[in-house]
Amino acid sequence: MDKFTPDFLLGAATAAHQVEGNNTNSDCWAMEQMEHSSYTEPSLDAVDHYRRYREDIRLMADAGLNAYRFSVEWARIEPEEGRFNETEAAHYLDVIHCCREYGLEPVLTLHHFSSPKWLIGKGGWEAETTIDDFARYVRYIIAKLGSGLNYVCTINEANMGIQVAAIARRYMRQMQVQAAKAQAADGTVQVGINLEKMMAGQKAAAEENLKIFGVEKIENFTSPRTPKGDKIVCLAHTAAKAVIKELYPDIKVGLTLSLHDIQPVAGGAENALKEWDDEFTHYLPYIQNDDFLGVQNYTRSLIGPDGSLPTPDDAELTQMNYEFYPEALEHVIRKVAEDFKGDLIVTENGVATDNDQRRIAFIEQALLGVQNCIHAGLPVKGYFHWSLLDNFEWQKGYSMTFGLISVDRKTQTRHPKESLAFLGGFRQ
Q: Could you tell me the CATH number of the domain that includes residue 136?
């Protein structure tokens, strides 16, 4: 297989809450600690990337990677509404400088699922005030960090709430038909969620929400989203992009979307078209003039006349109950490129497995698909593997191992896997 040219961004990705540890002012931290939590365990120190980022960046550079996608934690930057933390902003500037020191291009994400706790008390991602709140945060942090950046993702997986809403509806239908099959629904959304625990004890949870957040219903970023909330996310992206371009016109700005390789079977074409519209097409008015789109894909989705179908009986499943299907990435890139004409960056793609040889096989097939797209003339400018480290997979906890590097969480010792060097070997 070919190697990528030197200007191609080949790297790995993380999200602040999943790796940093002790993100005590965020909604996710608060929800992890609650009695009626849907999280299987709290994040606590995570994998201590907040203090060990220099070691982790060096490991990427040593393996041959030339880019690192990471996120700024809004709850660290603005722990109380309108009060910004200069020390935390300086920390992320240090991370950017460290990337430059080791020859890695920093690709910054401004919001990766977790939000300040105070934002949820105002109505979270269903409140129109969030648009201005997000823009204010973006203005502050880009003024601090923008001089060291060429790429900024405003919002990670802007469509996640819509996907969670759809899977929640599907889950409830399954519960009504056959409760024993409900758990399988978790595997059709590309984030670590625990729907069974989310649906249980809702009354008691509402009382606790009121005590912790001041609202009965938590509208965090990965909550099931209404059409109104979906538009708020889009407008928050638009506002953030305007701020970034005002401050640093040359920074390339985009958002990322969670995209399945949607494959219709007999009688499923109409449903598949609707599914693709929900995941991608209806976002085009808000993103069509962006500099790039972050494509995030992990698997395919089979669609029949009655909607989503279970994975085939003979399919290999990952720890997340996804079908092991690296071919999906090429299919999604080609599909997206039909309508989005800006640059494309694969901002997440990977597999949860404890078998690193299967991870290597996944990477090889996925990168072959990326190269096929480049050879076909598509503007694919980068690939970021998810994830750099085995980390905190949200409500699923630490049991899902996506990383190119394993971590002994008792000592926080890093153990690079063979897959890290394998990925780095695709650079010229």
A: 3.20.20.80
